[in-house]
Specification:
By secondary structure, the chain is of the alpha+beta class. Helices cover 53% and strands 15% of the residues. It folds into two domains: 175 residues, no CATH class; 205 residues, no CATH class. Strands 1, 3, 4, 5, 6, 7, 8, 9, 10, 12 and 13 form an eleven-stranded mixed sheet that branches. The chain has a two-stranded antiparallel ribbon with strand order 2-11.
Length: 406
């Protein structure tokens, strides 16, 4: 007697009831799957993008906004800071290294970031094609930018003022692609990198063509006698004591602001954690309701099948086999619901990534599978077992003589 096949036949015999229970369980598991995938990938990505950056220094404003805009490039900068003051801060003995950033423009929604070659070393990038920028208006493209915009070496484009939404084009100077980076799974995949001088000259009304053909600064700050600005500084401490003294010194004794990426991101996840917990709670409630639905369906069907169970006992089935037969129905229901739920969860995340080609969601992947998803399947099977116990026990107690007499 093939109990698995028999259990499957009973489930197929009531497709609407079976389908509703599977779908209800799948929806609950799909919600939890999406949350797990997004939370895990966001945390890994943010930790990866902040490696080597102990402090961000920029204009006064929201510390979280400063970190998000300068490290993760998913928010608007808090403003610009004076170059001379930035250089003064960088000379502090508690600072080991500084990487300046200049922002404010974009091309087709992708940010144009002015910096130096230290930024490439920070993220340990490798070139798929070409080389780093050497003179103003040469750019290096992140892998995702080159792929989405279909740009190659030697191609030119015009940047637009603003971040995310353009107000007008800077059509006085074309950017020239000199390098394309390998895909790293980090923030640089979504950036267009160039020199700080390029950002400055783009916004100049008067143009000194001789200056614009000079080699740019490959490390540190560009040398200039003019009053210039940068957007922010990425700082690495020289020793552990700097973590205590340097942020306090910058925030209290200068017009600048210092923000710790690790602290701000921890605070962000703490704030988001409340909402995630509430959604997970809702998903668990849906799963519990699904479990009750499976219990009610099996319990009610058992009343209709008492004669069938008695016949099975009469032709040689043991009490244990009847118990296992009903238990298998609940396990099959929840197993199918778990598989469907995981599939819906990954498919929904894929739709999000496709519809948001830029920004934080664009770096997520629906092809990632976590060990927690296996735990979800086991949890679903546990729900099926618990929901089936009482109906299975009633089947175990089936009285052959009484049922056949009726």
């Amino acid at each position: 007697m093939n109990l698995l096949k028999l259990s499957w036949k009973y489930l197929v015999a009531k497709p609407l009831n079976t389908g509703l229970n599977i779908l209800l369980l799948a929806l609950g598991l799909a919600i939890i799957t999406v949350l797990l995938l997004m939370q895990d990938q966001f945390e890994n990505k943010m930790n990866k993008d902040a490696v080597g950056i102990d402090l961000v220094v920029g204009a006064k404003g929201s510390p979280l906004q400063l970190v998000l805009s300068s490290v993760y490039h998913i928010d608007f900068p808090t403003g610009n800071i004076d170059l001379k003051e930035a250089k003064g801060v960088s000379r502090n003995r508690l600072i080991k290294s500084v990487i300046p950033l200049g922002m404010g423009d974009n091309y087709s929604g992708y940010r144009i970031v002015g910096t130096n070659h230290d930024y490439l070393e920070l993220y340990q990038v490798s070139f798929r094609e070409g080389k780093p920028w050497e003179v103003p208006f040469e750019v290096v493209l992140g892998a995702s930018v080159a792929e989405k915009l279909d740009l190659g070496l030697g191609d030119t484009f015009v940047g637009s003022h603003g971040i995310g939404s353009a107000s007008h084009d800077h059509d006085d100077h074309d950017y020239v692609v000199t390098g394309i980076l390998d895909k790293r799974g980090s923030v640089v995949d979504q950036l267009i990198l160039t020199s700080i001088e390029s950002v400055w000259f783009t916004h100049d009304e008067a143009h000194d063509h001789e200056v614009m053909h000079r080699p740019v600064a490959k490390t540190g700050f560009p040398e200039t006698e003019e009053d210039r600005e940068v957007t922010s500084l990425l700082v690495k401490y020289s020793n552990p004591i700097a973590a205590v003294q340097l942020p306090r010194f910058i925030n209290s004794r200068s017009s600048l602001q210092a923000a710790s990426p690790s602290f701000e991101i921890s605070r962000l996840f703490e704030l988001l954690g409340v909402g995630v917990t509430l959604i997970q709670g809702l998903a668990i409630i849906i799963i519990v309701i699904s479990g009750l639905g499976i219990f009610i369906a099996l319990y009610n069907s058992l009343k209709e099948r008492k004669y069938d169970l008695a016949v099975m006992r009469a032709i040689g089935a043991s009490k244990g086999q009847l118990f296992l037969h009903i238990l298998l129905e609940g396990v099959l229901l929840t197993f199918l619901g778990a598989l469907l739920g995981l599939g819906i969860g990954h498919f929904f995340l894929l739709l999000l990534v496709i519809n948001f080609e830029q920004g934080a969601l664009s770096s997520l992947s629906a092809n990632v599978f976590l060990i927690e998803e296996l735990y979800l399947v086991l949890f679903a099977l546990g729900v099926g077992v618990v929901a089936s116990l009482i109906p299975a026990f009633n089947a175990y107690r089936t009285d052959i003589a009484t049922q056949l007499t009726k």
